[in-house]
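Class, look over these structure tokens:
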Amino acid sequence: MENELISKLRYVIYARKSTEDAEKQVRSINDQVADCQKVADEFRLNVVDVITEEKSAKIPNNRPKFSKLLRDINDRKVDGIISWHPDRLARNMVEAGKIIHKLDIGVIKDLRFKTFQFSNDANGKMMLGMLFVFAKHYSDDLKTKVDRGMQNNLKEGKSSGTPKHGYIREDDGRYRPDERNFSLLQQAWQKRAEGATLEDVAEFLNSNNYSKYVKRYRDYVPRKISKSTLGEMFNDTFYFGLLNQTNQSVDLTEIYSFEPMISRDTFYRVQSLSQASTRNTSKERFIYYPLRKMLFCSVCNDKRPFIVSRSKGRQGKYYLYYRCANKACTRTDKNIRGKAIFEQLSLIIEAHLNNLPTEAYAHYMTELAALSDTKKIKLRQQRSTAITILRGHKTRENDLTLSLGRAQGTRAIEGINHQLEGLALDIERQEAMIKRIDETLALSDLPPLTPEEFASEVKQIGKKLSRATGVQKDLIAKNLFLKLEIGEKHVTDYHWCEPFATLVKMDEIKNGGAYRIRTDHLFHAMEALYQMS
């Protein structure tokens, strides 16, 4: 490229160092910027900005500053990039492909690197593509080795997960009781098992000056315990020895001399107490009403959601009805059939989601992977908790059954039967939860959808909605829509959840502009579709 032409180009120095993966050998950001500035000085390049970022480049659309840089390039505000090495720009093929495409169409005029001499021709782009591939392979291989190491360590009881209240994790990854807090937290568990509220337990710990040991400080840091923190702790099977991590569950008491804070029985009693407030022996209490708190009146614009109810028809079949919560509403027909609303939703979905742009699939694939890993860990924790609760329910059921055989007097027998009825519902609930979790885990292990399967499944959402069960209809609708406004007889307005809000507007995005959509709503909607298949 001629020197006169180069002098007119506007370059941006981009430096990146990941804080999210093991890139220990990469030069610091300041060193990268200094090296890039030397390149600019040597070739007399016009640097208009310096961008630094501490983000991983393994996952596309994970770097806000880099995404803005690409937008500035599309808007012709920047002509070239100076970076220390190509792997600073991308470690994934989505963004690597974008960079090479922008070189092909001339939007990026030039690239300069401290460690690699790039030429903007066929050979130069081939070498650049190979370096991007090597960078991706390095990240993928590193992740595989890290995951394998974590799994092997966990088999030996060596954790790399979140520190636990009341324990200190040693350098070898094993847990030992925290002498200052272990006994205090044991008392907290016992209080909760005896019926104390979360507020009471939090006040007890805070009034006793609970402080958490922070390893990097090698000291205790005062910390106020909140209800949400206690809720997480009281649902964690770790405290009786069952650790869930990296898609595995291990019993630490079988691996080394781990000292549990509580017994399985105490954990069960705490879980039973948490569920007691929602237990009701009447099955009417557990009727599932779809679209609860999603429908709003556009006739009177009342801010309260529609009231949902059901009535029994002449043939014994139940029908869903929705009505405005405002008694002074002027609508002609006070009640709207649920069937009519879902029929309209099916038409709305088919009208908007039948022709998704090709970019939607790339976002589905890249973000679904990260979602799945997080989701699996959480699901396995929930499954372990549910199994523990189920075992406790069945033990309690056996004890009550034996007591029933020895009971004397009508009042005693009725009391035991009442408890057995409640336990039967609790057992049914836990078994359904475990089944649901197992099905979801099985779905997350399925091969990724192909672009054709992805487009087909999304197109089927509207049609399958019409023949779904009440629970499935609610799951699909809530992951598609935030809010629905209802007129006299029709849906007058609707507000999409992400990523659908972005997908239906995708054609408004020009020149491949950078954007980021989330796929958690899409993932859950897909789950419902798979279960119906």
About this structure: Residues 20-25, 279-286, 507-533 have pLDDT under 50 and may be disordered. The chain is about 50% helix and 15% strand. The first strand starts at residue 10 and ends at 16.
